């Protein structure tokens, strides 16, 4: 199973490294490419955009700083939602306020794309660095 990971900050970089440690191959994307370097090699490739990443994976994790970054990665230019493989799973681990997940326009647009392609799940994390 190929996994995609978008957002390689403090949390995302560690989560992605743990997945690799358990034998999963990753396709990764981060706005600042340099932060992806430690994950690249036999079990990690960098994708030029969230859209290209989505075409290569079965499960896609996002671990981004805030709702606007999630919206941009999902629905912006080169966003991943229109490029998910059929039956792919998107797991959003970013901390977003409840009003974001329920925000009308985001929900509607994300829901439309997910319904025709894959599934989505919210898996926000508790804890601190
Ligand atoms: N750190 C913790 O202890 C902790 C605990 C529980 C939950 N969380 C939550 O986990 C999430 C990530 O936290 P973190 O500590 O990993 O944050 P972080 O180190 O600041 O990383 C944030 C990530 O979001 C990306 N990003 C930010 N703004 C963006 C934008 N406008 N467009 C595209 N990418 C953008 C960053 O890309 P760049 O690398 O290019 O800046 C980076 O990959 C947050 O929602 C946070 O509240 C954190």
Secondary-structure blueprint:
Blueprint (H helix, E strand, L loop, with lengths): L2 E4 L3 H12 L4 E4 L14 E3 L3 H5 L4 E4 L4 H9 L13 E4 L5 H4 L2 H14 L1 E4 L7
Parallel strand pairs: 1-2, 1-4, 2-3, 4-5, 5-6
List keywords for this structure.
129 residues, globular, binds NADP nicotinamide-adenine-dinucleotide phosphate, single chain, 18% strand, Rossmann fold, six-stranded parallel β-sheet, alpha/beta, 5 helices
Tally of extended strands? 6
The CATH topology corresponds to Rossmann fold
**From the 3D coordinates, which CATH architecture would you assign?**
3-Layer(aba) Sandwich
Which structural class do the helices and strands define?
A: alpha/beta
Give an overview of the whole structure.
The chain has a 6-stranded parallel beta sheet. It is built from 5 helices and 6 strands, in the order βαββαβαβααβ. It has one domain: Rossmann fold (3-Layer(aba) Sandwich), CATH 3.40.50. It has helices spanning 10-21, 50-54, 67-75, 98-101, 104-117, and strands at residues 3-6, 26-29, 44-46, 59-62, 89-92, 119-122. By secondary structure, the chain is an alpha/beta fold. The model has no long low-confidence stretch (mean pLDDT 88). Bound molecules: NADP nicotinamide-adenine-dinucleotide phosphate. NADP nicotinamide-adenine-dinucleotide phosphate binds next to helix 1 and helix 3.
């Amino acid at each position: 199973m190929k996994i995609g990971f978008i957002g390689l900050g403090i949390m995302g970089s560690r989560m992605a490294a743990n997945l690799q440690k358990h034998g999963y191959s990753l396709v990764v994307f981060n706005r600042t490419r340099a932060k992806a370097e430690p994950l690249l090699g036999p079990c990690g490739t960098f994708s030029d955009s969230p859209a290209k990443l989505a075409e290569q994976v079965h499960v896609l994790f996002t671990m981004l700083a805030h709702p606007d970054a999630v919206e941009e990665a999902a629905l912006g230019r080169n966003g991943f939602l229109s490029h998910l493989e059929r039956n792919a799973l998107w797991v959003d681990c970013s901390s977003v306020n409840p009003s974001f997940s329920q925000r009308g326009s985001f929900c509607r647009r994300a829901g439309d794309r997910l319904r025709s392609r894959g599934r989505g799940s919210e898996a926000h994390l508790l804890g601190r660095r």
